[in-house]
Amino acid sequence: MTHADDELLERASRFAFEIARADHLAKPRRPVPGALRRHVGFARIPPATLRVVRRVVDDDAEFRARVAEEATESAVGRAGLLWLTRPDGWDIELDGLREFLTAADKETADRRRINQLDTQLAQLGDELASAQAAHALTSAELVEMGDARDHAEAETDRVRSELAELRDERNHSVREWKRIERLRNEERAEVAAARTRLDEPVADAVGSQRSEAAMERVRSARQALADVEAEMNVVRSDLVDIERRLAAALDGVARALTELAEPVPAPEVELSAPARSGPPAPPGLGRGLLDDTVEAADALARTPDLTFLIDGYNLTLGAMPDVPLGEGRDRLVAALDDLHARTSARSVVVFDGSEPGAGSGRSRWVQVRFTDHAVEADDFLIDLVSTWSGTGPLVVVSSDNRVRDGVRVGARPLASRAFAQYLGLA
Length: 426
Description:
Radius of gyration: 52 Å
Largest sheet: 5 strands, parallel
Distance between the termini: 20 Å
């Protein structure tokens, strides 16, 4: 049964189900096909039940005739009426309707994919514009930092040159200081010698003349000593000024070298991840594995941080058609609990509505959810995938084509029968 069959015959299947339900509730009751008896009490009609109805209509000619008696084209559609009444050539006309619907579905899917690609392209364009703006800002900052570094290097070279000049000037001043110091010592020695000669006794005039000459030499020596000391004071003042300038230059060199040695910080570009607008990418299959097989189910179950989202009744009614609903739910939850023990995979199981007194079959690693009466499990699963906030990849277990097509963007679909066989339920 294809997705096109599901859509073409849905109205007729629901109509047949309502006929069976009316027969079941009639007083006195009219006979209802055995395969439908445990379904007619449902408040809602899940997709799995509709598939059971279609099998009954195909196999039970009496029930099909009963439904066809009350069916009209306005109630069940042209395809549904052909399927129920089966006039000559009905199957050829139904095939034509099926092909037309399949082509329309493909066109719709292609259009949806084109819209998705357009959205992704727009997002990439926005990200590119942001990256280009950030790059332009970074380039400007790098140019500014390069200019600052060049200026610091030039200032360092200038200070180093000035420092070399000051050191040469200081060395010259020190040499001059030592020369003047020698002259002063020589003049002091000459003054001391002259004073010694003046202290000797003078016996005659000749001696007196010599004394006068000695006194003149003393005066000359004292004047020379005074001149030398004055020159030494000038040199001393110059030397102090040179020392002060030399110290300032050394400080400037130290600061420039420190600035030059500091690493130029790399521009900080904020690389914040865009907010995720959907689930993570679907998990892939290993080379050589085929979709919807037991081997594929085993490989997917071993994917790190994986979560299975399971169409509950789609699996239990298909794998265990003769098992009561509550028991089927409990068997499925127990099998999923064992699966987690083997592979660490988590599971969320979704069932249509609930029955009075039905247990949830909940365990630590398996979440069981029942939809509201106004919401089908199909829609619930599709919405759950589109709003998934977890971090790990998703696998949706369902054989319903509507569900499988609706979750492909954010999850990998897996057929219910393959997964049931993997769990040992079928």
